[in-house]
Amino acid sequence: MFKKYFILLCLLPVGAVSAQSSQVLEAYMQEGLQNNLSLRQETLEIAKATENIRQAKALFYPRVTFAPTYSLAAGGRRLQFPVGDLLNPVYATLNALTDSRNFPQIENVDEQLAPNNFHDTKVSVQYSIYNPEIQYNYLIQQNLLSAQEARRKVVENELRHAIETAYYQYLQTLDALRIFENSRMVLLELVRLNQKLVSNQVQTKEVVFAAEYELSKLEQQRAEARKNHEVAKAYFNFLLNRDLRVDIQVDEALNQQVLQTVETLQTLSEGAVTRRQELKQLGSSIEAAQNAVRLNENAAVRPTVFVGGNAGFQGFGYEFKGQGYALGQVGLQWDLFKGYERKSKIQQARIQTDLLRTRQQEVARQIEMQVTQAYYDLQTTHESLRAATSARHSAEQYFRVIDSRYRNGNVLLIEYVKVQNDVLTAQLQQSLSRYDLLIKKAMLDKVTAVP
């Protein structure tokens, strides 16, 4: 099934690999991106960051509040003033002099300070004319949203690579089962052949026992291969967040993929630095830290100016007649001294900016190292595949010769078994190298952020 593919692959120069993933694999990737729980969490984080922007933007608008209050009070401090004791004698004298009652007697003042049966029903308006903290906070939230979106793309890139790698590993376990089944058929034929040779008195019974022993060893290897197959299947379905026992479609078109030569290491490294979302995430975080520096610098030297006002009704008893009022305000707040708090915040924001820049440089170097390692791993695996393909071809050719000679009684069973095991090993090694090449290409695509 894979013969044509490997003949073409062996004729290519070092660095030639598959150009794109198959349609079946791409469909699985899209399913994984839609269903994966980690990616859903990142999507929710983006939604939360978007709401933070809306909250920051809301501070640019006026704030209108309807705030009615009604108070009942009993006890507490009282205002006492002997106004009656002071004025009543004077009023009595005036009444006697004028022979009238124009000046009535009055009571002393004894009022409760806590207002009882008092209401204040009002609408308050407040609007910030100038506040640097509002402006820069809005910019910071935008930067954090960009960083979160880049973070989601990082997780998406990791998930795509994990799904692609798991798919190739699953196909490799299928190929291993096929190889073991073919070897089993060969050993079953050997057992039947030896039984026939013994019945014809050409060989003694130990050749049958030896062949059955080799068959039992192979059955143990097949059992291990079946276990690996089920584990690979479950892991792939786990990445897609679906039932672990769901069957996986095998893409036969992997054998006919278009092949192309890998770009130079320098080109790959430069492209990776441009495309990797980790650097974009750090870039947005650096912009947020720089805006935090500007926020604290402006807040330290500039005041905030606002206007506002209240309009409503106020008085004793819940009555509105004759109780209306309106109040306008213009305010300014300027922190002249806060114990060097602003200075410390400015320095803290600058330190954070330097820390992120240092981290950005480190990540860029790490990316270059990742690309270099993935590039040479791919080339080494390609050479290994060439050697494994050649070794399998030689082993199969040699086995055909030994098989023919064994049937004619010219080769011992031990040599036949050794050659048969060599064929099995060569086939497994070629299969492993074949899918390892695809896995290494997937890793190169991951570190270079190729979509």
Task: Give your account of this protein's structure.
By secondary structure, the chain is of the alpha+beta class. The strands form three sheets. Strands 2, 3, 6, 8 and 9 form a five-stranded antiparallel beta sheet that branches. Strands 1-7 form a two-stranded antiparallel ribbon. Strands 4-5 form a two-stranded antiparallel ribbon. The model is unreliable at 1-20 (pLDDT under 50). α5 runs antiparallel to α6 (206-239) and α7 (265-275) crosses α9 (341-407). It contains ten helices and nine strands. β8 and β9 (324-333) form a beta hairpin. It has two domains: 3-68 and 126-447, Up-down Bundle (Outer membrane efflux proteins (OEP)), CATH 1.20.1600; 74-114, no CATH class.
Strand content: 5-15%
Q: Which CATH architecture of the largest domain?
A: Up-down Bundle
The helix content is: 55-70%
Task: State the CATH class of the largest domain.
Answer: Mainly Alpha
Order of SSEs, N→C?
A: HEHHEEEHEEHHEHHEEHH
Sheet with the most strands? 5 strands, antiparallel
Give the CATH H-level superfamily of the largest domain: Outer membrane efflux proteins (OEP)
Shape: elongated
Number of helices: 10
Record field, number of beta strands: 9
Uncertain segments of ≥5 residues (pLDDT<50)?
1-20
Rounded to the nearest angstrom, the radius of gyration is 43 Å
Q: Total domains, how many?
A: 2
The termini sit apart by 29 Å
CATH topology of the largest domain: Outer membrane efflux proteins (OEP)
